[in-house]
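Chapter summary example.
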Amino acid sequence: MAIQRMDNVLIVVDDLDAVIAFFVELGMELEGRGPVEGRWVERVIGIDDVRQEVAMLRTPDGHGKVELAMFHAPKATRHEPTDTPANTLGIRRIMFAVDDVEDTVARLRGHGAELVGQVQRYEDVFLLCYVRGPEGIVVGLAEELR
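The structure predicted for these 146 residues follows.
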């Protein structure tokens, strides 16, 4: 048996509205939002008395998804600082292909985003950068040079 596809990436957040706005500005589309609770979810994630609100966003091509979850109960815990460097163990970023890196960075700044380093050219292939958005979420942006 083989993997059929990667379905989504989950990010747990404190400010669901701010993070949704950030990803919508990036170009993702809000697919749905609503409460998730009950015994079935408690059994899946291994936490009792769960109450959360979940939002699902998808890329314009419909293939990539980001799931955001805000826990009302029990409250989410933070296990690391939000400004961890790129060499910290664990998932560090999600990479998106964009039409225009500079324009995307400018628009995301309106949502509190900051460049992690600098926009850099990789040969004649890509313009690349990392942007830290709300709640320390890091996204990579790649503009293919034609």
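To summarize the output: The longest helix spans residues 16-26.
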